[in-house]
Every structure is written in structure tokens, then in C-alpha cells.
Amino acid sequence: MSTTIGKVTESLRNLLVGEMVPTTNVTLISPGDTSGQNKRINLFLYRVLENPHLSNRDWLPKKGTAHQLVYPPLALNLFYLMTPFAQLDAQTGLADAHGLLGEAMRVLYEKAIVPQIYLESGLQEGEVKVTLLPLDLEQLSKIWTALNKDFRLSVAYEVSYVEVPAKQERPLPKRVTQVDLDVRAPYRPPVLQAMTPVSGPVGTTLQFTGASLRGWKATVRVGGKIAAEDQMLFEDQLFLVPVPAGLTPGVYEVEVNVANLSRLREVFEVVP
């Protein structure tokens, strides 16, 4: 049984055979294999990559069922090397091969989306899109070097995207049929209002007053030194923090932050 990738390759051959004028033999063997007929177009699949834009799709409903999901298909981009072959003429050289290549390129240009009549069974119309790749001579040479063959005139095409169906399935989760929502407590953000005292020695207890403070966390800095960090507050209207050690006499800024919802800036003087 032909795979999805194989069906795409055969569909491209069908297209070239059906549209090239005059009718030309199209082979699907390695371009390094010279055992085929002399005058022909050869298509060779040389690279397969996962489509980067379709790699994170979610599970999909299974066709024909109402309660089953299937894993998303594997989306691939296929890369083909198209090479013309013809006998070397003493006067015109490989002109016949050049003509074959031009005719094949015309077909893939005009039929960039492969028509349904050329698609193998199982492929959907509009699924196989062919795009000419602008590879330079160095990139093409690397392909021929990998094949361990001398360079031949050729062009590359990308087919995107090709879906390989997945086999994994799972039942569709039950849908939410009823939502019960009961909000009893209104949202009250914390509010900082004042600080006392405004002066005292190191170790003095600072009292911060406000509203709706319970349940939030507070961070207090005095002169850049941390006096409290993420301190849980257990009262609604006030909390206490000592002035940190290590501060010499002078005036310092006090910064208070409650859960990034309320802030207060005050000045405190450390006295001997």
C-alpha cells in the first residue's frame, strides 16, 4: 500500500506525464542512476522536514464520529530535485535536456497546486502545492556531492504541506453543561495611609496604617536596607516593622510595597 509521501511523489509524476508537450518519460529514481532511458525527466525526493508552523496543533475531532478525538496528523514539507536527461549532441550539446527542463518547469509553474485528476487516491484537492526553490550553485552542488556524483543541471522544488495521518485516538472529554458561580466577597485592594514615628534610633518600631491589609504581603526598605520582605499581614489596619540595624544617624527614605497594589514613601530620621 502506497504511503502518503509515496502518493505525493506519484501525483507529481502523473502531472508531468499528463501535461508535458510532447509526452516525456518521467522517472522517480536517484539522479545518479543512469540506467533509465536516455531522454527523460527525473524527480528525486532528497529531503523531508516537519512543517514548522503546524507542529503544535491540538487534538482534532475524528471524522464520522461525535465523541472521539485523533492526534493531529504529521505535517511535512517534501523537497525534490528535478533533473533532465538527454543524449549529448555533437553540435547542440545538452540543448534537448535544457528543453525538457524548461517544459517541466512550465508545467509545475502553471499547475502549482496539483489538479485533482492527477492526485493519487487518498489525497485531497488543494493539498499538494509545489514551489520552486531558489537554490544557488553551491547548495545544488552539495546535493550532488552527497550523492557522490558529478554535478548536473537541475532545479529543486518544495511541496508543502503533506499530512501523514496519526493513529492515536482518545475519547472526547465531556463538555461543561452548567456553571455555578457565587461571589460573596467583593475585591478590596490594600491601601497604605501613613507611617509613625518619623524619627528614632535603630530598632525603632515603625507602624504603618491603612485599610484592607489583611492577607497581603508587605516589603519595607529603609535607606535601601530591607526591614521586611514579603511579610504576611494579619490585621486590616496596621502592621509593625523595626528599623534595620547598620544605619548611621541621618535621614533615610522609607519605601513600602504591599503586593504591588499599594505603595508608600516616607522619610525617617535615625538619631543616636
Largest sheet: 5 strands, mixed
Report the average pLDDT across residues. 87
How much strand? Answer: 35-45%
**Helix/strand class:** alpha+beta
Q: What is the class of the largest domain in the CATH system? A: Alpha Beta
The termini sit apart by 92 Å
Instruction: Enumerate how many helices there are, as a single number.
Output: 3
Q: What share of residues is helical?
A: 10-25%
* Total beta strand runs: 16
Report what the structure shows.
- The protein is an alpha+beta fold.
- It has 2 domains: 4-171, STM4215-like, CATH 3.30.2000; 191-270, Immunoglobulins (Immunoglobulin-like), CATH 2.60.40.
- It is built from 3 helices and 16 strands.
- The strands form 4 sheets. Strands 1-2-5-7-6 form a 5-stranded mixed sheet.
- A hairpin with a 6-residue loop joins strand 3 and strand 4.
